[in-house]
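Hi there,

I know you've been waiting on this one. I reran it after we fixed the sequence typo, so this is the corrected version. Both the input and the resulting structure follow.
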Amino acid sequence: MLRPATDADTDRVRIWRNHPEVRRVSLTRHEISEAEHTAWWARVAADPTRLVLLYERGGEPSGVVTFFDLDPEGSEQRTGWWGYYLDNAGLEARGELLPAWIQIQREAVRYADDALGLAELHGEVLGINEAVRRLNRRNGFAEVGSDVRDLDGEQVEVFRVVRRRGGTAATTDQPVDPAAAADRTPGGEPQ
């Protein structure tokens, strides 16, 4: 289940984001300080183009989904970007990490389609994160481009993915405008 995140969730969200495995596959890999997280949370709360949802599994808070760079509601071809991460430690202890990965992505994609009415959902995934790349393909995402970025001194390939409403992946028959995509690339938000 996805629900809006509240101020009561901020500490757990930061703990999950700072898990070593989550940091390893993130665009920003440093440990997020309390002050940095508090500032991010305040920006998110004041930004109508962003939405943070908490994922619950079996009634337990277990992950977070962020939507950002959302076009205004009512836009003809509304688009947005997304990302997610899980409570790796808690889910692993319960033996539920893999099913949670599958479920959080399915619920987030459904939310993007139904609740947000997005025509396109964009994201980025590190080339080293093969498990998520495969899951993306199963859920209708297509890798539409990549670039190499310096992440803490390491050269890492980052793939841009796009999914069209209803599970239609962007393909060469359905091109994504690279200039528009470049304008939409997230600006390195730490969370």
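Quick highlight: The helical segments are 10-17, 20-24, 34-46, 88-93, 97-114, 130-138, 178-184.

Best,
R. S.
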